[in-house]
Amino acid sequence: MNRKKALIRVVALVGLLTLALPTLVLAGDEAEGKGGDFLMKFGLAIGAGLGLGLAAFGGGLGQGKTAAAALEGIARNPGAADKMFVPMIIGLALIESLVLYTFIISIFLQAKI
Known about the structure:
The protein is mostly helical. Helix content is about 90%, strand content about 0%. It has one domain: F1FO ATP Synthase (Up-down Bundle). It is built from 3 helices and no strands.
């Protein structure tokens, strides 16, 4: 159990750093008033790439758990398959929309490079 909590903390810390890296790099360049072009481009590229990768990973986990729970429910009660299908599809679409939002944000970050 402690190993699982430690893994969750590491993933949360990496995610937080990934999301904060482009902001910190842009803020540092503005404060310095210098070029710092390489550092800014590097930070934007790393932030966009890791952010998209983490979003896809989290979306895949969420979709897998959603599908597994729906299929388990259908296996236990096949008569309820029609009632479970539409909410499952809506849930999968909402999970996928978060990944697509991250994809759009990464495109905007890449456009700044």
